[in-house]
Design goal:
Layout lengths: L5 H17 L4 H15 L5 H6 L2 H4 L5 H13 L3 H9 L2 H7 L6 H11 L4 H9 L11 H17 L3 E2 H16 L4 E6 L1 H4 L4 E2 L2 E7 L3 H5 L8 E7 L3 E6 L4 E7 L4 H9 L2 H13 L9 E3 L2 E3 L4 H7 L31 E5 L10 H11 L3 E7 L11 H17 L4 E9 L10 H4 L4 E5 L8 H13 L5 E2 L17 H11 L2 E5 L12 H6 L4 E7 L8 H10 L13 H10 L3
Parallel strand pairs: 4-7, 10-11, 10-16, 11-12, 12-13, 13-14, 14-15, 15-16
Antiparallel strand pairs: 1-3, 2-4, 5-6, 6-7, 8-9
Helix pairs in contact: 1-2, 1-6, 9-10, 14-16, 20-21
The protein binds one DNA strand through α2, α5, α8 and α10.
Length: about 575
DNA sequence: GCCGTTTTCGGCCCGACTGTTTTCAGTCG
């Protein structure tokens, strides 16, 4: 039993880095903690296990001092270093560091000149002109800081899907240990696999009346209070500020309650209208036909009563799905190729061999290795020499033939003029190429669209990576005309990626059907930077399913040979 | 704080953008 998991440890290390930065510590010491946080995120499986077997101590960027901190966090849930820092640096400064455009230098200037060390005071100073009057500040800076504060406030209501997923799963586990709980189901936006989540909902099946169970919820670890309650629901507020709604149902109504807890509002409205038209009533926590109770122990039984096929949760969005045939959606096991991963050759934290072995265990037939290209210097982009070294290693591993087939790829920066990042004679040596934008985000829509279209004209490009550049809850997409990109991609035979990194999930599921209708092939790329990042794939599958995609719509559901044929077709 | 085919010290990634200035510091990816 460990006290703190991987995410918690990584968060603590990041906090230490931020506190040190605010204290004016050596930038490289700060960077060491940030890098260690990243490494810890990438450790597969149980952190305590990696501590025991010594693999954590061997990991790059983990030295004796940081290993000590991690050991402490994992075994006791606390860190002396972190707690000491908390007494020395006001927590409000840490929040200020979250604001885009505010770094330690400016924060220190603000604190020294105005005595401000928290967000509310910062906001007031930005409004009343004190901030703009500081040297090297101005009206624009104050305005941007206000925008940043507003953005943070809004974003704090939302969670990234993988965080919501992990939190729901952990809570389900705790709830299942309560007496009289027969089952616990994650519902709501997590179950619909939305890219960001505001409201978490869990349905409990119990063999006692709901109120008997609801009384016990306060005892769940981490629960601060019951924020709201009725005869069959309670809202739990956690110490961290988040809330989760828990609904309780007897087994005979599980289908109806689970559908209602899953949503969306529009889907439920369409379903209720359908029920009314058929002489049913779906208003409460059960299905009624006049005054006759209709048992709905499963979701299938509810939909069947309304003469509808069961609807996969991912598709329950605008209500229009009830009028369309239910497509056969892609499943995780349909993916034969694992695409888009970074190794220690660039900014990944797992070695090529470790990543390959982990992909073998996941059952992938082939793996497309795509480290960063040389323009991405901040991410350790590959020099021509490194490329040759990696190709030699890939050739050797393929010769041994003990793992999945390795494909030589690269995630090439699309330079500002639309060129790929190596001369053609090097590009020609790759089996396939993902082209992505990592810099110069601020072009006009026309310029950005033209830039990507020019990249697609290269016969070496196979896939456009994270095509809008958004970072969920942190950075807007860059301006780009997706319809023009789709039609050019279809014309050139270039695929477009669903980037499965839960920070991106880019393309957005809402435009997938349009892309497919225009003839664009889609690929799911994990953008894994570690063995742990292999798990990203399931989020990409969620996006594809929300977009209504099936196996035939996805490039990496094809065999390695067919995948390579797709890439080669462009070069002839 | 971490690392080492320059290994116990001295280096660690760098170019572009923004808002401020009028030549550049601070921030970001």
């Amino acid at each position: 039993m460990t006290t703190m998991d991987r995410t918690g440890v990584a968060r603590a290390l990041e906090q230490i880095a931020s506190y040190l930065e605010l204290q004016g510590e050596n930038a490289f010491r700060v960077r060491a903690f940030k890098a260690a946080a990243k490494t810890v995120q990438g450790i597969p499986g149980d952190l305590a296990g990696a501590l025991r077997d010594g693999s954590l101590a061997e990991a790059k960027g983990i030295g004796p001092a940081i290993l000590q901190v991690i050991t402490e966090l994992v075994t006791t849930g606390r860190s002396v270093v972190l707690e000491q820092l908390r007494t020395e640096v006001p927590a409000g400064l840490l929040e200020m560091l979250e604001i885009s455009g505010l770094g330690v230098a400016k924060i220190r200037q603000i604190r020294d000149a105005l005595g401000i060390d928290n967000l509310p005071e910062l906001e007031a100073a930005a409004r009343d002109g004190r901030l703009a009057a500081l040297p090297r500040f101005g009206a624009r800076t104050a305005e941007n800081i206000l925008k940043g504060i507003a953005f943070l406030r809004q974003a704090s209501e939302w969670r990234l899907s993988h965080h919501a997923h992990d939190e729901s799963a952990a809570l389900c586990e705790a709830l299942l240990r309560l007496p009289h709980v027969l089952a616990a189901h994650v519902a709501g936006e997590v179950r619909r696999r939305l890219e960001v989540v505001r409201d978490m909902v869990i349905v409990l099946v119990a063999d006692v009346p709901p109120n008997e169970l609801l009384r016990q919820l306060e005892a769940i670890p981490g629960v601060k209070e019951i924020a709201g309650e009725d005869e069959r629901r309670a809202t739990l507020r956690f110490a961290g500020g988040g809330t989760v709604q828990v609904m309780v149902t007897p087994p005979q109504n599980l289908g109806t309650v689970l559908v209602q807890a899953t949503g969306s509002q529009a889907h439920l409205a369409a379903l209720a209208a359908r029920a009314t038209a058929k002489g049913f009533n779906l208003a409460g926590a059960a299905l009624w036909e006049g005054s006759r109770f209709v048992a709905t122990p499963t979701e299938e039984s509810l939909y069947a009563a309304l003469a509808l096929p069961w609807m996969p949760p991912e598709l329950r969005e605008d209500g229009g799905e009830l009028d369309r045939p239910v497509p056969e959606l892609v499943e995780g096991r349909d993916l034969r190729g694992f695409l888009h991963c970074h190794t220690t050759y660039s900014d990944g934290t797992s070695s090529l061999t470790d990543l390959t072995e982990a992909c073998r265990l996941e059952g992938y037939e082939y793996v497309g290795i795509t480290d960063h290209s040389r323009a991405a210097a901040y991410a350790g982009g590959l020099s021509p020499d490194s490329i040759r070294a990696q190709w030699a290693e890939i050739d050797e591993l393929n010769r041994r033939g003990t793992g999945p087939r390795l494909l030589k790829g690269i995630e090439s920066d699309i330079l500002v003029d639309g060129a790929l990042d190596y001369p053609d004679d090097i590009l020609a040596g790759f089996d396939f190429i993902i082209g992505s934008i990592h810099s110069r985000f601020n072009l006009s829509e026309a310029e950005m669209t033209e830039r990507v279209c020019r990249a697609m004209a290269s016969p070496y490009l196979t896939i456009i990576g994270h095509p809008t550049g958004r970072l969920l809850l942190s950075r807007e997409a860059y301006r780009i005309d997706l319809d023009r990109i789709f039609s050019a991609a279809a014309a050139h035979g270039v695929a477009i990626e669903i980037n499965a990194d839960p920070h991106r999930l880019d393309l957005d599921w809402r435009v997938l059907a349009r892309a497919r209708a225009m003839g664009v092939m889609i690929s799911i790329g994990a953008d894994a930077h570690s063995v742990a990042g292999i798990a990203n794939m399931s989020y990409g599958v969620g996006v594809a399913r929300k977009g209504g995609l099936g196996r035939d719509d996805l490039l990496n559901c094809r065999s390695a040979e067919d995948f390579l044929a797709f890439a080669r077709a462009r070069r002839s």
